[in-house]
Specification:
197 residues, alpha/beta, 9 helices, three-stranded antiparallel β-sheet, 8 strands, single chain, five-stranded mixed β-sheet
């Protein structure tokens, strides 16, 4: 395996952390400049990457050599949840790339448990992030009820001194209104993808 430069390694490490990134996101995170330059850099990394086209953009992830280079055991493959991951990563960029950012985290107070899409720290406080892309509103409602149970129980507030804000990222204005209504009794913010892109 040839030794990569710092920027090339950083790109592989971003894909290790964030699973799937489109070219625009890689350009933004790693300052790859214009499209032509970004394409050149990503082409040089092709021995370590897989990619596929989704709508109008190329989406990248680590192949076996890429995983070996950055010591990652997590095998990624094109799947129906890729768009969910891409949306989540737009929020990662919007939140100024928090250092503490962990996906699919189980949060429990001993009574209620929830697997949050992302658990992250920004401006000194922890937050929950939920991405609403394909699921039915009924599933979101169930999840929100679990957050409400955690909120009412008070254990997280006692532990942190505050209840972490629940942030939703959704696709349409209608869904934003529905989520805001469902979360009206929680510390919650709802964004649409168009606001943060």
């Amino acid at each position: 395996m040839k030794t990569l430069n710092k920027r090339q390694e950083a790109i592989l490490l971003s894909l290790k952390k964030l699973d799937f990134l489109n070219r625009d996101q890689l350009q933004s995170i790693h300052n790859l400049g214009k499209v032509r330059n970004a394409n050149r850099i990503l082409k040089e990394l092709s021995p370590y990457l897989e990619s596929f086209r989704e709508e109008y953009s190329s989406i990248y992830y680590l192949n076996a050599d890429g995983r070996a280079y950055v010591n990652s055991n997590k095998v990624r493959r094109k799947n129906p949840f890729v768009n969910h991951t891409i949306l989540r990563n737009y929020f990662y960029i919007f939140a100024k790339r928090p250092v503490e950012w962990t996906n699919e985290v189980k949060i429990s107070d001993g009574i209620t448990s929830i697997v949050t899409d992302t658990w992250f720290k920004s401006n000194g406080k922890y937050h929950f992030l939920e991405v609403d892309s394909l699921q039915k509103m009924k599933e979101n409602k169930t999840k929100i009820n679990n957050y409400a149970a955690l909120y009412k129980a008070g254990h997280l507030k006692k532990h942190f001194g505050y209840f972490p804000t629940l942030i939703w990222l959704t696709t349409t204005e209608l869904r934003r209104k529905q989520l805001k209504e469902l979360c009206k009794d929680l510390p919650c913010v709802v964004y649409t993808i168009d606001e943060i892109k």
